[in-house]
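agent> Task received from the user: take the single chain below, predict its 3D structure, and emit structure tokens. No templates, no multimer pairing.
agent> Plan: (1) validate residues, (2) run structure prediction, (3) serialize to tokens, (4) report one or two observations.
agent> Step 1 OK, no nonstandard residues flagged.
tool_call: predict_structure(input=
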Amino acid sequence: MYLETNNLTKHFGGTIALDDVSLEFPAGQITAVIGSNGAGKTTLFNTIAGFVEPDSGSVRLVREDGGTPAQIDLTSLPPSRIARSGIGVLFQDIRVFGHLTAIENVVVGKQHQWGENPIRTLFMPGVVGRQDRDNLAEAKQHLDFVGLSDKASQWASTLSYGQQKLIALARVLATDASVILLDEPTSGIHPTMIDTLLGLVERLAHEQNKAVIMIEHNLNVVRRVGDWVYLMAGGRAEVFGKPDEVLRDDALIRTYPTL
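)
tool_result: status=success, residues=259
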């Protein structure tokens, strides 16, 4: 399974945000997208997630199950449909529900909950109750994965910024996403928690075979966990390759002149 963009183009007035961008994001790999402000990273991220509609080009999820690859065209679908197709997003700014407990925040991410349908709740209470218990057990597993099982019953608003980001990650996992978009995942969290978060990201890609796409300004993070890097400039992928190749390219010095 992998995600691909094909000839994506997006203009905002006279500004070219994406210029014929064709990229691949394979499963089992952490792909970092780097570049200066205005390079097109965020527009690419938002186009994949469905928050921005491209002027032309496409975004496709390709599933390979031993036979002919099956393609799901995500282009121009609303974000809710894209999420149901298997795309999960961890935003730079934390979006947890402070008035809910940690585990309730994770359960919210579970899709297709029968309890959301009042007819089923009224006429099939036993089935709905069993699914609710299953969803709660699964949410506990996701909290355990991110190391917060002991915080399950605490209000999200009482937890630290870094812990809230881990709750948000657990909620993404509850959607059963096969592609995970990470927008500046280490931004704003305490240095002691960066190792924890990056270790989880590596496990998602390398152990759970998810396609991880990471926008990250911290080049040390990219060097540490990136398997493949795209350096964007002017809405195009100017340089791409393994981190040790891209991070010593002359184009990187032009993009980050203070290095």
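agent> Step 4: summary for the user.
The CA atoms of residues 99 and 212 lie 30 Å apart.
agent> Done.
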